[in-house]
Write a structure and sequence with these properties.
This protein is an alpha+beta fold. The strands form 4 sheets. It has a 6-stranded antiparallel β-sheet with strand order 3-4-1-10-9-11, with helices on one face. A 6-stranded antiparallel β-sheet has the order 5-6-7-8-12-13. α5 (219-239) crosses α20 (567-578) and α11 (398-404) packs across α13 (427-439).
């Protein structure tokens, strides 16, 4: 894991960390005569508002530009701005402007210090979040929640954990909380502004108005903007210095270099990409291989080395044969070196329940081993197509947005596609009626409806593509794991929804835009968990579709274009054609019907005994969130072929709690008794409703 951490204190000088506990200088003495600083950190700047970079950052991933001792900017991550552009950005930020700090290509976190004012910018997707907590009369902040939880010895926030299971896609349920009590998260598209310890959350990206319909965007120009943003995102990563992992210690009998590296968990030097056979990963692989500059070559190591393309072939569960064949056809490009990684039963979901502690829980914990097997054969810098579906596809609730803008004719094609998939002529009327009802439903009423559904345990949803679309045509919907929660936990989330409905709004967003942004934030948070749990040493995963500039370009796509069936594949095909890549295999962009649910069912069936052992005395039951007997019964039913929806959320949260409580270290030195998060373990709750309200 890599993060940055710092604080802004109320004191103007280096007060030290004495009996009063005020923060002060980075080099001040802490408890027991020790210096208070993060373990394994490098100091970027010192008192009175210090900033550290923690973890295995590469030298080119940390840049600090100083105008003087009171005006400086730090950029951590992959950023395409030159030092001169960063300097100009610093001068502009002195006047309070923020948006330009997020306009550079790449994926990064920018921190600006102007006198005693510190500004930390989050990203638009939520893949690079910012957290904060009150501490010692000021505010501590970080790009990870666990260091802050260690600093304040935070207990678990049971209300957040309940909402994470009951309504993970509903911002009003999650609010700005984290799994750690007292540690808060800034929303995507916002920045944390600190002035001598006082904090303010400021938005830097405009939101479309409900009152005035936006003028229709030109589809061709919008797609060209997506192309330009994607190409620049890929070029920025190709322009960064190449890194060689640790040297191979020597041969192993019967193993080639690639097998040796994979066995030892070492990526291949250079740049590579996923090549799943789908349009997103293929687009990035072909763009990276086609841009000038010898994409796969290390400086001074050969000429014209090909880009490594990795395809995962699941041998335990069939149905992906067509995608693998398309990947092989794409890999016939002489600029690509194709590697197929096969996975048997050992690579199924739930098969590998061991792994590192991540900053937060997420459903991808149960599939981390599956991804790690693929990534171990990848490159030191590895492109992935994660996020393309969330930024390019139309959320079903966008049909209500079209009705609000009086663009009914654009509903014809998506509704007709659903009718063909269902084979019923009544689908059109049902979908149109649901979209019209959503367009006329206020946000507060939508939250009240969800709260009532949770209280009455109404979780039955229609099946199939039509059923999923109808279920998504609401302001808020329960999560798949909500059905397994106790009545007390559901009541707590219902109370939270009622409180938030009374005091919050959507920022004048349309329902479709609101649901799409929430889904993107949820996906980006889980991708962050996946990166940490499946991390390969010396490897960097790149998800250009989640870069700020790519997200902005995709948001400018007209809704009429988004809602067309197969829109994502057509957009990406146009992107490739405009860059000179026209030869694509037949069936490229065809949606895969090999659902991950089949692999999940197979994994649950094979891993039923370890999972039952995991829930023999579940920590979630100690927290008052589930009943252990009910979960064990659900696991047995799922192993026998019943529904598996929501079990990944339960299992991953239980795994995360076990790893958190088994942890013995801390992120800080100089704190009393090496303070760490959740010092007392899980305490059974007696009055959950009071804590939630």
């Amino acid at each position: 894991m890599r993060w940055l951490v710092g604080w802004s204190s109320a004191a103007g000088g280096a007060a030290g960390l004495g009996s009063a506990g005020s923060p002060g200088a980075a080099g001040s003495l802490g408890y027991d005569g020790e210096t208070l600083h993060p373990v394994g950190s490098q100091l970027l700047w010192g008192d009175p508002d210090p900033l550290w970079a923690v973890g295995d950052w590469r030298p080119d991933e940390v840049r600090v530009i100083k105008a003087d001792e009171q005006n400086r900017i730090a950029v951590l991550g992959i950023c395409g701005a030159s030092d001169e552009e960063l300097r100009r950005g610093l001068f502009t930020a002195r006047g309070g402007a923020l948006r330009h700090l997020t306009n550079w290509p790449g994926s990064y976190t920018a921190v600006v210090q102007v006198g005693r004012r510190v500004t930390v910018c989050g990203d638009l997707a939520g893949a690079r979040p910012v957290f904060h907590t009150p501490w010692a009369g000021g505010t501590a902040y970080a790009t990870a929640a666990l260091p802050l939880a260690d600093l304040i010895e935070a207990n678990l926030d049971f209300g957040h954990l309940a909402a994470l299971l009951a309504a993970p896609d509903v911002p009003a349920a999650l609010r700005d909380t984290t799994p750690y009590e007292g540690v808060r998260r800034i929303p995507p598209g916002h920045a944390l502004v600190l002035r001598a310890g006082a904090r303010e959350i400021a938005g830097y990206d405009p939101v479309s108005s409900l009152a005035v319909s936006a003028p229709p965007a030109d589809p061709d120009r919008a797609v060209d903007a997506v192309r330009d943003a994607l190409v620049e995102a890929v070029r920025t990563r190709l322009s960064a210095p190449r890194h060689v992992p640790d040297l191979d210690p020597g041969p192993v009998p019967g193993m080639g270099p690639a097998e040796r590296r994979a066995r030892r968990g070492m990526p291949v030097p250079g740049i590579g990409a996923d090549l799943s056979g789908g349009p997103a990963s293929a687009t990035l692989a072909l763009l990276a291989a086609g841009l000038p500059g010898r994409p796969g070559t290390l400086l001074g190591h050969g000429a014209g080395e090909r880009l490594l393309a990795v395809t995962f072939n699941d041998l335990a569960v069939g149905g992906r044969e067509a995608e693998v064949q398309r990947a092989a056809a794409l890999a016939a490009d002489p600029r690509l070196h194709h590697v197929v990684v096969t996975g048997g039963e050992e690579a199924l979901p739930y098969a590998d329940l061991d792994g590192p502690l991540t900053d937060e829980p997420g459903p991808s914990l149960v599939t981390a081993g599956r991804h790690r097997a693929r990534l171990a054969a990848g490159s030191a810098d590895h492109f992935t197509g994660h996020g393309a579906r969330q930024v390019l596809d139309a959320h079903p609730a966008r049909l209500a947005d079209l009705l609000m803008d009086r663009r009914r004719r654009h509903l014809v094609r998506p509704v007709a596609a659903l009718a063909r998939a269902d084979g019923s002529v009544l689908v059109s009327a049902r979908v149109y009626g649901a979209a019209r009802r959503l367009a006329r439903t206020p946000y507060r009423a939508g939250l009240e409806e969800l709260a009532e559904r949770l209280m009455r345990r109404r979780f039955e949803e229609p099946r199939g593509a039509v059923g999923a679309s109808l279920a998504a045509l609401t302001w808020a919907a329960p999560g798949p794991a909500a059905r397994w929660l106790t009545g007390e936990a559901l009541a707590e989330v219902s109370v939270l929804l009622g409180v938030e409905g009374d005091r919050s709004g959507t920022g004048a967003q349309r329902p479709g835009e609101h649901r799409a942004r929430a889904a993107l934030a949820r996906y980006a948070a889980d991708l962050r968990v996946l990166e940490q749990s499946a991390e390969v040493r010396s490897q960097r995963l790149h998800a250009p579709f989640l870069d700020n500039q790519v997200v902005r370009a995709c948001r400018e796509l007209p809704e009429a274009l988004r809602v067309r069936p197969g829109a994502r594949a057509e957009i990406l095909r146009t992107v490739l054609e405009s860059t000179g890549i026209t030869e694509l295999p037949p069936g490229w962009g065809t949606p895969s019907h090999a659902s991950s649910a089949a692999a999940a069912r197979a994994g649950l069936r094979l891993s039923a005994d370890p999972l039952l052992d995991l829930f023999s005395r579940p920590l979630l039951a100690d927290a008052g969130l589930v009943d252990g007997g009910v979960v064990r019964k659900a696991l047995r039913s799922a192993a026998a072929g019943s529904t598996v929806e929501g079990l990944a959320d339960l299992v991953s949260l239980e795994l995360w709690l076990h790893r958190l409580l088994a942890r013995r270290g801390t992120c800080w030195t100089g704190t009393p008794a090496r303070s760490r998060a959740v010092p007392a373990g899980i305490q059974r709750r007696r009055d959950a409703l009071a804590s939630g309200a």
